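lol forgot to send this yesterday, sorry. struct tokens for the thing we talked abt
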């Protein structure tokens, strides 16, 4: 079964298509997985190029009770034939970043949605993106003005990041240098 999540109408297919267009054996990181919906589509896409999706999330059900819900996600990776493609890391973004230091082809940012959160996620993790690689932001719409504002900041850095499209609330930029 496809896990629940917060993707809007056209986004699942767009994410799968995006990931299937990455280079052979690409590595992508997802920051913010929740129950695993976006990971499912990114995973199915990147599987087509024999790539790897590394997901990072603390996996506490922050919408309800702080209950650990990672077991459902891991089980869904197994039942959807995604173990081997997805490497789930269970932990805090910034704790994990301390020991994580490999170049990546793409980064999907979907953690907390205030300006300072998105900014910190980007500043900590985007240095790992290879030149020619991509950063993707989710929930870029009026409901989350902090994300909109931060993505507006990135759009101004035209020597560093080129607008590479997106779909619905997903905005994608290519790293130029
Ligand atoms: C909006 S949800 C992700 C939705 C998911 N991408 C989907 O497709 O449904 C945000 C997730 O980010 C995680 N998160 C936010 N800040 C975090 C942090 N600093 N470390 C680890 N996980 C974090 C939360 O636990 C939550 O599961």
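and heres what i got for the seq, position by position
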């Amino acid at each position: 079964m496809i896990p629940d999540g917060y993707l809007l109408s056209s986004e699942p297919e767009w994410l799968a298509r995006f990931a299937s267009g990455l280079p052979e054996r690409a590595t992508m990181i997802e920051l913010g997985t929740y129950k695993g919906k976006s990971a499912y589509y990114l995973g199915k896409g990147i599987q087509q190029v024999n790539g790897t999706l590394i997901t990072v999330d603390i996996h506490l059900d922050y919408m309800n009770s702080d209950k650990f819900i990672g077991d459902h996600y891991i089980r869904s990776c197994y039942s959807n034939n995604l173990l081997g493609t997805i490497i789930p890391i269970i932990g805090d973004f910034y704790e994990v970043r301390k020991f994580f230091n490999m170049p990546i082809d793409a980064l999907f940012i979907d953690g907390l949605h205030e300006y300072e959160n998105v900014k910190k996620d980007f500043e900590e993790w985007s240095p790992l993106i290879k030149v020619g690689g991509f950063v993707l932001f989710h929930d870029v719409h009026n409901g989350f003005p902090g994300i909109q504002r931060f993505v507006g900041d990135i759009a101004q850095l035209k020597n560093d990041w080129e607008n590479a499209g997106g779909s619905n609330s997903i905005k994608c930029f290519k790293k130029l240098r």
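The chain has one domain: 11-175. anyway ping me if u want another try
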